[in-house]
Structures are given as structure tokens and as C-alpha cells.
Design goal:
Blueprint lengths: L2 H10 L4 H13 L3 H13 L3 H13 L7 H13 L3 H13 L7 H13 L3 H13 L7 H13 L3 H12 L8 H13 L3 H13 L7 H13 L6 H9 L3 H12 L8
Helix pairs in contact: 1-3, 2-3, 3-4, 4-5, 5-6, 6-7, 7-8, 8-9, 9-10, 10-11, 11-12, 12-13, 13-14, 13-15
């Protein structure tokens, strides 16, 4: 332990758990996981669930310590058993991927449900995806949509994209191209590459929104830059319908930083 981490740990002894957690979070945000762990470690030993999760996450990712999947599972299990939603979600991810523990999709879904019930947006998003895919657990389009709406209300872009897909493909709802575009627009503004690609396709096809080749190419290029394979089939057809000036304008728009999304 470095001298600064020791100093922080000593100073933390006389402060509340909330103040110690805040100091550790600040250190972790600055990339100083040694200091963060010097605070989280003792708190985890004392049974603070979120500290247990954070220690487990550090062992899982190798942040400030050597990566150790077995120790990650130990601490994440304690956090999950103590009711921490982040611990439940992170332990679910470990079971889902088979990292540090035998792969168990059923156990993962149970933990995601527990975390989602406590309002964890990332767990709500993952469970929504599982229910929509229907390969790991029985499909339930209505519940998938409900969970996606809850996660989207907390700013989860992936769930916004999924809601667009639900309305586009009429999965448990009436097909509604306008609603699909509305959700893709929200997610695209938050940088979701698949939403950007689908929004671009909608502008190209005039589905749920007026046709606009410049907007179409701009969003398709953003999606492609972000790694979405969904953009690829549409880019050449859109370009073929445009003059050189508009193609260049769309490219410049695609390279500009995204404005802050409107809630």
C-alpha cells in the first residue's frame, strides 16, 4: 500500500461509511484504485454490501489488484447475498459468462431479476434482452418492453434501441414506425451505434419519418464509425441517391460531436 493510500485509510477511520464510500469513489474515478481499495477493503470486511461489490469488481477486472476471478466471485456473492443490486448484477454477469464460476444461465437470470426489481437499469436492460431473445429463458415480449421502459427512463441507451426494435418488429405491440424512430432518435443521441444505424435506415426509407438522404447518411456513418454492422447494407444505396455536395455535408455532420441529448 502506498503512503497516500495509507494516509487516506487513516483519515477515513473517523468518518462515516457514506463519506468513506464517497472518497473511494472519487479516487476510483481518478483511476487510483489502490487508494479506493484501501477504503473499500476494510468496509467490505465490515459487511458493507456496495464495498463488497466494488472489491469483487476490482478482482474481476484487475483494477488496482491482480485479476482473480475466484476472489471476485467470493466478494460479489457476499454483496449479492447482502442485497446489493450492483453485486447481484455483477454476479449474474459472471454466471452468464462463466467467469470464475461454472456458466449457469438460469442462476444469472435469477440474479438479474433480483437486481432489476431493485431498479438497477443495467440489470433491467439485460433481463429485457434475455426475455426478448427467448433463448435462455422463456420469451415474454410484454415484460421485456416494461423492463426496457424502466431502464430507458434512467437513460439506458441500449434499452431505448430495443424499444425501437420492439415497435419496428411489432413484438407484443402494434407496429408503430413513428414510435420506433422516436426511441432510436433518443438512443442515437446518446451514442448507441445500432440506434444510429436504424435511424439512418429510417430516414433513407421514409419509415416513421420523412425521407432525408443527408440525415440518413449522417446517422448511418455515425453508426458505422461506432461499429454497427446494421449500417453497412444501407450506406451505398443512400450514397447512390445523393450528389457530391450532400454526401460531403453528411460526412462532416457525422464527424461532429453529438450535442447533449434532451431528456
Amino acid at each position: 500500500m502506498g503512503w497516500f493510500a495509507k494516509k487516506v485509510q487513516t483519515e477515513a477511520a473517523g468518518t462515516s461509511v457514506a463519506e468513506q464510500m464517497a472518497a473511494a469513489f472519487q479516487a476510483s474515478q481518478a483511476g487510483d484504485y489502490e487508494t479506493a481499495l484501501s477504503i473499500w477493503g476494510p468496509l467490505a470486511q465490515q459487511g458493507v454490501p456496495r464495498a463488497q461489490n466494488n472489491v469483487g469488481a476490482c478482482f474481476a477486472e484487475g483494477l488496482g489488484v491482480e485479476r482473480d476471478p475466484a476472489l471476485a466471485i467470493k466478494w460479489l456473492t457476499l454483496a449479492a447475498e447482502n442485497g446489493d443490486p450492483a453485486g447481484q448484477r455483477n454476479l449474474a454477469a459472471a454466471y452468464f459468462k462463466g467467469e470464475g464460476v461454472e456458466e449457469n444461465a438460469a442462476k444469472a437470470s435469477e440474479l438479474y431479476r433480483a437486481s432489476a426489481a431493485q431498479g438497477d437499469a443495467a440489470a433491467q436492460d439485460m433481463l429485457s434482452w434475455m426475455l426478448l431473445e427467448g433463448e435462455i429463458i422463456s420469451p415474454d415480449f410484454v415484460e421485456s418492453k416494461r423492463l426496457a421502459e424502466l431502464a430507458a427512463a434512467q437513460g439506458n441507451a441500449a434499452s431505448m434501441t430495443r424499444l425501437g426494435l420492439i415497435y419496428h418488429n411489432a413484438l407484443g405491440v402494434e407496429r408503430d414506425p413513428v414510435q420506433a424512430v422516436t426511441w432510436w432518435d433518443k438512443a442515437a443521441a446518446r451514442g448507441d451505434a445500432d440506434a444510429q444505424a436504424m435511424l439512418g435506415a429510417a430516414y433513407h426509407l421514409g419509415a416513421g419519418v420523412a425521407r432525408d438522404p443527408v440525415s440518413a447518411l449522417m446517422w448511418l456513418l455515425r453508426g458505422q464509425y461506432g461499429g454497427s454492422q446494421l449500417a453497412t447494407p444501407f450506406i451505398d444505396p443512400v450514397r447512390a441517391s445523393m450528389n457530391d455536395y450532400d454526401k460531403e455535408r453528411a460526412k462532416k455532420l457525422a464527424e461532429m460531436p453529438l450535442p447533449e441529448p434532451v431528456s
